[in-house]
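User: quick one
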Amino acid sequence: MAEETLLTDDFVRQLINVGEVDILVGLPTHNHAKTIEPVVRAIQAGILKCFPRERTVIINADGGSNDGTPELVTGASIDDVWRASKVYALRTLHAISTRYATTLDSGTALRTILAAADLLRAKVCVLVSPEATTIEPDWVQKLVRPVYYDNFDLVCPLYRRQKSEGALMRNLLYPMTRSMYGYRIHEPYASEFAISGRFATDLLGKEIWTQEWGRMGAEISVTITAITGSYRVCQSFLGTKAQPARNSSDLVSVMRRTVGALFASLDGNFELWSKLSGSQPVPTLDSEPEVIPEGARINRKRLHDMFATGVTNLEPVFRSILSETTLSDLQKIAALGIDEFNYPAELWARTVLEFTASYHKSVINRDHILQALVPLYRGRSLTFLLDDQNGSGENIEIREEALCGEFERLKPYLLEIWGERK
Amino acid sequence: MKREPGWYKDAVVYQVHVRTFYDTNNDGIGDFAGLAQRLDYVQELGVNTIWLMPFFPSPLRDDGYDISDYRSVHPSYGTLEDFKKFLSIAHERGIRVIIEMVLNHTSDQHPWFLESRSSQGNPKRDWYVWSDTDAKYRGTRIIFVDTEMSNWAWDPISKSYYWHRFFSHQPDLNYDNPAVREEMWNVMKFWLEMGIDGFRLDAVPYLIEREGTNCENLPETHAIIRDLRKRVDEQFPGVMLLAEANQWPADLRPYFGDGDEFHMAFHFPLMPRMFMGLRLEDRKPITEILQQTPEIPASCQWCLFLRNHDELTLEMVTDMERDYMYDIYASDKTMRLNLGIRRRLAPLLDNDRRRIELMNGMLMSLPGTPIIYYGDEIGMGDNIYLGDRNGVRTPMQWSGGWNGGFSGADPESLYSPSILNPVYGYQAVNVLSQKRTQHSLLSWMKHIIGIRRSTPVFGSGSIEFLYPANHRVLAFIRQLGKETVLVVNNLSSAAQAVELDLRRYKGNILIEMFGKNIFPRIGDLPYLLTMGPYQFYWFRLRRI
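Assistant: Done. Structure below.
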């Protein structure tokens, strides 16, 4: 009886008042007062405009904000929204908030939202980032429709981004997920996505919440579970995505949540991914160019210094993780001046795969492995940003495709070193 | 169709007589071709097993329970090929088929009996129970008290008496004769090899007679059943044997043996007590009989029913209980037959939809495999002015058209007149109209059957009664593995509040299984529920 319960009594009472819903929009927050209001308004407008007949609820799973975020979510009035949008709400649009835990944990936030979706028998569960300041009302429709009308189980987003943004996705998460799991899902770690009620219920009952990768990166575990469980997945183009400003220490935690979760997922899914080769596209709705190839302000020198210093200072660590050839190749490019600097796709793919195998074998502390990848990733980002500086979005996609090709080509190499003792 | 072990525990059974269901050759009598055509309906209803009443050649003096040929189909219903086709289509749709096997007796027109009675020296003489006197086995009760004066009948041909526990035209076979036992096994094998999934074995307590006993439930009878079961298990694994033994629970228990006799047996005493509990607005009759019901082996199962092709039997109640049942449910003496009431479910419950739902709710949630009698899923009525039990065996009501859609024959030529009155007649109560309405009884039945079949907890789970202070409320917990279901029934015609002690389940929330809405979390205080008249709830307990 002392067993912890995920949902508080008060939250359950609020859910009872809401009752069964068609669409549930989940907002995981923590001190997002600065950004949350326009996000909630856009969601409300999207619901009123496209789903006025549906039973809907916005569920805010808050990690203990002290800036009034929950109050902003629950207090957001739809009056202005419907006046401005010239749409009228047929139904009560519920918005409820719950404090999900005493400690911050995106996995618990997502699980709380999924549990609410399951209990309210939501047909669609949409997740929206509280930092999605560029959200437009039609994002709701673009995420909901494929599940609600076309029976997809997971809708991943496609964004239009500045070239300087989404580098981790383009250089690591997308090519790696694609080569390992065989599906071309461009945003496998999405802060906006939609899932079917069926998939939400199934996810809730899975072991991922107690496994390392599920705890580390709840969002990427959703995508991987969908792929490994043969759920119907599609992509839907949403629009422009602005990346929230982050400092360099954020990158390490992002690495843990994304790359760490992806690496860890490979342990338990070996039987599946080891048999796959190549990749296949997933249905994509409303596809548009994804890159705004405008020049971004890049501190080239800083990135270059971080890479070169990292390669020098972390050499003993790299000796545990990387092959001699790869380390030697890295040292060679670290010695290049900034104008000649180039971290080629093949070397980058080889680097990541050797990190993957070392992570699997836990050659050193797994968190240290992830931290050691950060300076190398900065080097690869520099090449990505510098290459074809004034090129079109199309060129960027060609280079991205080439990088994915390298990952897929080198997958047998990963299998070779996967079980090998160093 | 593969037979998983224990499939019968999670089954929902539909009892039907081929004669009553659908007539394809317009002779006024339902047939196998018609039954096969209507399997769509059976499948849509959600049941997964059909129990077929006797369809063998017979003089039909006891609705087919007087068999004159065990290896064929009555010509009115079609041919053996028609039966095989029906069986095959049923299996394609995932519906199992159980057939009747009347072991105890044959028709007096069966060739075995004709031979047996032809002379005292006939080789088949010993296939039946003969005596020069009607004084043997005096301690044996008469079952059909309204029609039979004795269990012995005089045979003018061979000038001696023959033994019959039922009608005098149904002589009992002599199971002390090994040739009889072997031949009846061969009969069973004949149908098993065709692919049927089980037998309802009729009148099993009466197979053997012994002086100085009541000739029921004798050890020798059990030995015969064990032998049959052994042969079934060895040669046709997965086939289910269902006992028809109208006995008290303690007397019924031996029919399960150590899991080596019957797989299932009807729980006869429960059914009248459900009707009693409803009208008394008191859970006592139900909890009492279930408390007296002994544990049965894990592989075995009770069969539960509300109504069937016979009278609502009141043999397994006390005299006082029987008087009450007659007064409440059969005030018109025409409704009474033998020790029972010959009425269908809907008229018994005054066509009160709430009571019909509550009774079906209990049927589907108490421990056992539920059986639905054809027509009760749409609330068909009866005709108490037809003789014997024929009033509850009238044609299925498919539509409001000619003969209720049962047959294209002249109405006068039907095997039985259809129900025509304005309340229960086929123009008011029929499948077609109920299919069009989301809130019809038929739609509701489909829903509850679907929920019942969505979880094995009702078929295989344990039961624990809660005893809230409000005696009008019957509440119990069904549990299987990690799944727990709370069932709460208001037996009263008025709204009730009830406080349930659910502290053992503290921390769980309740999910109402019909609407799937959530109810508040269980805490330390008694759990308060308010219930409308005859309302019932099924809650799945969930910890989250």
